[in-house]
Amino acid sequence: MSAPMRYSTSDLSRKSGDIIARALQAPVTITQRGKPRLIMMSVEEYNRLRGKLPAPEKQED
Strand 35-40's sheet: what is its strand order? Predict the structure, then answer.
């Protein structure tokens, strides 16, 4: 397993689209002053880690 991608909060301001695209593929670490502060990941990955299934879609009558 490879190390997660790391971006600074400054990178997040400048490259948000690229970072979001990567986070949809695999979790990324957001650092602040060189220290890990946040993990960005897809909702599907978050739910998988929490052991939850996605909520069923509501049907309109």
Answer: 5-8, 28-32, 35-40
pTM for this predicted structure: 0.73
Q: Where are the domains of the chain?
A: 5-48
H helix intervals, 1-61: 9-14, 16-25, 43-50
What CATH superfamily classification does 5-48 receive? YefM-like domain (3.40.1620.10)
Residue 25, helix vs strand vs coil: helix
* pLDDT tens for each residue of the chain, 61 residues long: 466 699 999 999 999 999 999 999 999 999 999 999 999 999 999 988 888 766 666 666 5
